[in-house]
Specification:
With 355 residues, this protein is an all-alpha fold. The chain is built from 15 helices and no strands. Helix 3 crosses helix 11, helix 5 runs antiparallel to helix 8 and helix 6 packs across helix 8.
Amino acid sequence: MGESKGERRVGLLNGFAAYGMWGLFPLFFPLLAPAGAVEVLAHRMVWSFAVVAVVLAVLRRWQWLGELVGQPRRLALVTVAAAVIAINWGMYIWAVNNDRVVESSLGYFINPLVTIAMGVLILKERLRPAQWAAVGTGFLAVVVLTVGYGRPPWISLVLAFSFATYGLAKKKVNLGGLESLAAETSIQFLPALGYLLWLSAQGESTFASEGAGHTALLAATGVVTAIPLICFGAAAIRVPLSTLGLLQYLAPVFQFLLGVVYFHEAMPPARWAGFALVWLALTLLTWDALRTARRAARTLRAGTAEAAAGLAGAVATAPAAGAEPTAASGPATSGTATSGTATTSGTAEPLDATP
């Protein structure tokens, strides 16, 4: 029990670290000026690949590579994931460096709603009433924000849809976090390196022209990308999915607070109203997820208890060795079968509860 609590504590600390670092990204990317967003993006791809390749080499985790290369469909999905995460990274870097931190935080607030909507449209998943209410409220929030901005919040929508598509592709590929990032950045590596070499040939690269500190910061984009992912992986295997679902809101909350308090971005009434609707939608979504998880846990416990009772009954009424079977052994067998059904139905509920 103590070891279990210790593991959960380690998982929580890693979860806070991962989402906390992601939430503080708006403080890092402005430090890379005068490098433009595309140059920063290319460096992030190149150095992320280098860092993750070193980590995998130290851990000697290469067996997945041969399996992936031999499966063209999974390789195609990795390529899709690499493309959409490049769009996501590039848009985020551009938004942060152009005083759009609040709007970028909105993208990660509405991402769970977009993910659910894509599950319905693409995977034909069924939603519970509270989930429909959350998605509808989120759509209303986008309408309100469109009126408030005088245009659709396109930065938020690009970030949300690109990250939701990335999540869908990763779900289909089913690779670990480090392996997935290695596969994606290996696809990005050559185009990114080619762009950096071309930029240098044009005399427009800032990598070696702005001092050693600037060079070190650009190289650090790989570490900045990899460390939160490693912490997230450590959290994912130690804490329940419901806990991770709550922790994921830390990143956009930090980004929003930085945008309003530190960068002093404008928040007119219409924008506050739109964000309030988004937060209402997320509250509905979180409440429904927690309620469903508790109900699934109760069903599972009840099924397990019934199975144990049935087994105990079967043992108690079983005939002694060499004795003739009696009528009493019939109900015991029946009870065991019934309890098995209950256990099965109990474990099916968490699958049904997955959005």
